[in-house]
Predict the structure.
Amino acid sequence: MKDNFSNISDKYAKFRPTYPQTIYDFIYPLLSQRDIAWDCGTGTGQVALELAKDFNKVYATDISAQQLEHAPHADNIIYTVQRAEQTVFPANSFDLITVAQAVHWFDFDKFNEEVKRVGRPNSIIALFGYELINITPEIDAIIKNLYTHIVGSYWDPERKHIEQQYQTIPFPYRELETPEITNIKLWNIDALLGYLQTWSAVQHYEKDKGSSPVKAIEHELRKVWGTLEVRKVSFPIIFRVGRIK
């Protein structure tokens, strides 16, 4: 599992989007109980905090201690630094296992073995993430140019799994059909720029070039953004759900 975000943990916590309630509304009726959940690759804890509203206890793990330092606290969330592929959890521990925008960094086979070990019989695993955002055709074109041409060569190979909507990731569970979901946010231009700054390829570019590719397109983005204070930002959601054992 790679750690591309420890050095920008504060920005990640501030600018990465939370997930829509629709995801949880789909998952929860599938569960026989809401006792203990594991949010794997929790990052700065956006999903863990949501799970904590409905579960008695949530274990949230990540390989980045810096990310966990920026995660929100709750009495029933236990944060620990652990690899996704090998944990200290007892067998048959969890009713729900979630991985949000992180599974593409894992060793798939080892992670799936760990999921089968720690998931309770008839428990649920849910993988979710999001694709490239949509705002307006003019704004989207600038962002697509950033994504494909400016920082295109700086994406890790694992990014292909996002582009392929996680369909190329081994999923040895009884898969359930999921709804199409779009995450809608209302952002100002500064929120958009902050989000773009958290891209892993942007971080790699900055380390190599010593300059910000987001800064390079900021003027053009602000121009096409126009005078509207906020705009609708759409994140198409990647969503795979399966039963364990």
Notes: The beta strands are 36-40, 57-62, 77-81, 94-100, 119-130, 174-176, 182-187, 231-244. The chain has one domain: 6-244.
